[in-house]
Amino acid sequence: MAMNRCSRAIWLGLALLGGCEQPYEPNWLYRGQWIDIDGRDREADETCAGTFEYLDHYARAVSVEFGANQHLQPYRWYSPEQYYTDAPCGTDPRPTACAWPDGVDTPFIPHEHEVVHLADFLVVDCPNILAEGLAEFYSPTGHTPGSDAIERLNTRLADPAKDIRPGEYAVAGRFAAFLVERFGLDAILEVCSITGRYPDADGLSTAIETVFGLSQTALVDEFAAQPGWCNSFERYQSHVYACGVAEAATSAGEVKVAGEVLEVTYEFGCASPKTVGPRDGEIWIHERVDFAVDGIYFVGLRDGPEHGDLSEGIELFLAECKPCGRVQSYSSEDFYVNPVQFKAGRHSLEIRAPEGYSGTLIMTIELVG
Questions:
Q1: Rounded CA gap, 255 and 344, in Å?
Q2: Can you tell me the distance from the alpha carbon of 3 to that of 141, in angstroms, rounded to the nearest whole number?
Q3: Over the stretch 57-115, which tens digit does the pLDDT of each residue have?
Q4: How far is CA 217 from each of CA 214, 223, 224, rounded to the nearest angstrom?
């Protein structure tokens, strides 16, 4: 959620009028190459060992993707109590996070959606429907639009100066995904540079026609005609961390020829430097993997070193680095059961486990034909 600059200035002014005895000194828990993390009543051991580095790499992914190519503003990570007391995002309503030109405020980590806003702020200040849509699209967590998606989109395009509502985030993200695929991110940012943050309906419509070469009505009609299977968030999201131009994710390796087995061992658990989270009761490792050729692959994941049965609740996801590409998911009963056809190219790789899990996992990928 990106807050507007005017309300931020008013809020800060009220805080000053209230009287601050001395300026706040940041509690830097992490100083990264792309983002710094300020713990507001937080300590580093309150998150998994790999979270800060992951967030730094994510900041790189979106900074490079947006063409900012520079260090982002700080990520202010609050304890729930401090967040409630300071109310940096306001109280009516009280959102779970917000982004400003000077940084992010949230009691959660990682919150990649807000980091996307920081990259957006460095390049151009988009209208809310596009800003939130891009933040949704370039985040790994989002929503699938419902049957009223086009109606919600048209309502917001008719009043683009107004902040979008929570129920509109899903269609905003799907619309942004369509625009990036159809015209490219630079073209969307060009629209933003023409309209500014608060255009009226005519101003946004004119900018769309100028940059995209078709009317807003024709654009929405083309969007509405997109295949329904692409509306699922897991399929339309950008997977920018593994698939973006920055290549921010660590490579797990490449499978090149039939009979070759890629084997990767992961020390999984919150104390591991590769493990991120927890969030929503899960921890995860996020990397990328490459398939050199189209083919049939066996994918395996097992507990090691005893090679026992896989613990319940562990899942693996492989997603193509292409718009609305295939997303293949595996759980404990799926591995080694059926071979799967994968296309050549880069794939996003995520392994997820319940929050309290700790152990060694061995992943294997084999091209069999």
A1: 10
A2: 20
A3: 999 999 999 999 999 999 999 999 999 999 999 987 889 999 999 999 999 999 999 99
A4: 8, 10, 11
Has residue 335 got a pLDDT over 70?
no
- Mean pLDDT score, 134-162: 95
Closest C-alpha to 73, from 30, 35, 105: 35
Q: How far is CA 341 from CA 218, 318, 338, 362, in A?
A: 36, 12, 10, 21
Percent helix, strand and coil across the chain, each to the nearest 5? 35, 25, 40
Please report the pLDDT score of residue 303 as a whole number.
Answer: 82
Q: Is the pLDDT of residue 269 over 90?
A: yes
Which alpha helices (H) appear in the chain, and where do they start and end? 5-18, 51-65, 80-86, 112-123, 128-137, 149-157, 169-183, 185-195, 201-212, 216-224, 233-236, 240-243
Residue 236 near residue 274 (C-beta atoms within 8 A): no
pLDDT score for 302: 85
Q: φ and ψ at 224, to 5 degrees?
A: -65, -25
User: Per-residue confidence at 11, pLDDT binned at 50, 70, 90?
Assistant: very low
Q: Are 306 and 300 in contact (CB under 8 A)?
A: no
Phi-psi region of 297 (alpha: psi -120 to 50; beta: other; left: phi over 0): beta
Tokens 């994968």 correspond to 342
Got the DSSP string for 25-39?
PP-EEEE-SS-EEEE
**What are the backbone angles phi and psi of residue 180, rounded to the nearest 5°?**
-65, -45
| Residue whose pair of structure tokens reads 């969030």 in the numeric block | 279
Cβ atoms < 10 Å from Cβ of 4: 15
Q: What is the pLDDT of residues 200-245, one digit of tens each?
A: 999 999 999 999 999 999 999 999 999 888 999 999 999 999 999 9
Widest Cα–Cα separation across the chain: 71
pLDDT value at residue 305: 63
